[in-house]
Each structure stands twice: as structure tokens, then as C-alpha cells.
Amino acid sequence: MTTTSAARPRPTTTTVRVPGPGTTVRLGISRIRYETRLYFRSPDTLLFTFFFPFIMLGIFTAAFSAAGNIGGDDNGVGGVSVGAYYLPGMLAAGMLLSGVQNLAVDIAGEKSDGTLKRLGGTPLSPLSYFLGKIGQVFVTATLQAALLLLVARVLFSIELPSDPEKWATFAWVFVFGVITSAFVGIALSALPRSGKSATAVVAPIVLVLQFISGVYLQFTTLPDWMQNLASVFPLKWMAQGMRSVFLPDSFAAAEQNGAWDLVAVAVALGLWLVVGLVLSRVTFRWIRRDA
After folding, report:
1. Which of 11, 99, 106, 284 is positioned for an S-S bond with 182, CB 3.0–4.6 A?
2. Tell me: the pLDDT tens digits for 258-270?
């Protein structure tokens, strides 16, 4: 008697390929180009993130210039022009809008419309995706800052610093602030329940921070409790760092601690960068939990 046994299928193994560092960076750079093109094709994004600081600088300069310089004596001698006083705050606001508001609203929309779900099925890793978003923010924020400085100098006749040390401070505060804002924006994108509600959730947070952080109002005119609250968040420190670059050193006495305190600026932005990075990685999902 011959026993014939059916051939058993061999178990198959699935190999998950993890993109190497070279592929991760290459895909990230490709995403930077794509995200940047997409950014400049969105009229709403351009109006409320890219051009918003220009609009506000123009409004404040036109509305309050008749009152004379800020920080001058009773005869109006000395101090700086209204435009020069508000320029540092508008640069800081631009960094926050480019990173926090732009990315939080954009990523929440991509979660809601299924874009992230589709990207999750491609070789794109979360790191490449983050590189694309952060790179886009850095490119657009740099263009925004350069154009804002050009407008300030040409249209509003605002004197810009001539000291290289001031520009070195501008560089590290700007880079630090933009990257921190980008990570905070990615983390904040987990808060809205849908793409439609993202603007309604994120925009008020960003607007309140601008009012209490010395962007639209002179910081020292705010109540102490409001100054202390603003000090918890990164925008206050970005604005303070920018004021140290563009305002005379005599204005340092008007800061909360009576000095520019750039070490505290670096520490605060560093802490928020770490917090934003950790929250971004913990909360980021290709697919919504309630999908």
C-alpha cells in the first residue's frame, strides 16, 4: 500500500524593507520641493501665513505713526519709528504662522481627506514626511523674512542693523524659532478632529499668543500674569530675540527681566523644540485613530 501525501505549501515570509538613510533624505528633499510648490499654490495659505505680517506691519505703521516715535522723550526726540518697533514682532509672528498655523492646519487636512493614509502605503517614512514639511517651512519662512526686511527698508525707510553680531543673533534665533515652530505645528495637528475644524481650532490659539507675546502690544504694558503666561510659550522668546536684533540696546530695560537675556531665549526655544519633536513623533499617525 502506497501512501501519497499532498505537498504542503511552504510558509511564506514577508520582508519589510526599512528605507536607508540615503533614501530617507532623498525622499525628504523631494517632498520639500513638492510641499513648497503646493504652499505657493494655495491662496488662503499665502494670505493668512505668508503675507499676513506684511499687512499687519503696514496697518500699524499707518495707524500709529502720527503719534511719533516709540521710546523717545516728551518732545518726540529719540526712540524708534512705529514701523521699526513692530518689525521684530512681525518677523517672529511670521515664523510662528509659517510653522505652527501652516503645518497644524495643513496636516490636519491631510489626515481628514485621506492623503496621509495614501502616503502611508508608499515607501515614504514619517521621517521623510517630517523633513518635507520642515524643509518647506524653512524655505517659505526664509523668503518671507527676506521680503519683509526688504519692504521694511524700501517702503517704510526702517534702518536695519549694520553690526554683524546682530545678524548672527538674527540667524540663530530665526533658525531655532522656525524649526521649533514646525515641530510644534506638527504636534498641534493632532488636536483638530477634522480638516474642516482645523482653522477654527488653531487660528485662535495663534492669535492669542500674538497678542500676549509682545507682537501687537508693547509687552511691558501687559499685566504681570499675562507676561508670565506668555513666557511659557515660544513666541514670546522669538519676539524678544528679534527685538534684541532690531531695537536699540536701551529698549532692553523694557523687557520682563530688564535685559535681552539671549541665553534664556535659547533655552526656552530648545525646550520647546524637544517638546515639539517628542509630541510630533508620539502623536503622528498615517491614519486617524477614529477613522
Report:
1. 99
2. 899 999 999 999 9
List b or e across 188-208, with b for residues whose CB sees 16 or more CB atoms inside 10 angstroms: bbbebeebeebbebbeeebee
Task: Kindly state whether residue 165 falls inside one of the protein's structural domains.
Answer: yes
- Give me the sign of the Cα torsion angle 241, 242, 243, 247: positive
State the residue range of the domain holding 155: 22-65+80-283
Question: At 136, which amino acid appears?
Answer: Q
- Tell me which residue of 186, 172, 183, 145 sits closest to 267, measured CA to CA: 172
From the list 180, 95, 199, the residue with the least C-alpha distance to 142 is 95
Q: Would you give the DSSP letter of residue 120?
A: H
Q: What b/e readout covers 31-43, taking b as 16+ CB neighbours within 10 angstroms?
A: bbeebbeebeeee
- Residue 5 in any domain: the answer is no
**In a domain? residue 289:** no
Instruction: Report the C-alpha gap between 245 and 242 in whole angstroms.
Output: 5
Q: Using one digit for the tens of pLDDT, what is the confidence trace for 42-85?
A: 888 888 899 999 999 999 999 988 888 887 765 556 789 999 99
Q: How far apart are CA 223 and CA 229, in angstroms?
A: 10
Q: How many structural domains compose the chain?
A: 1
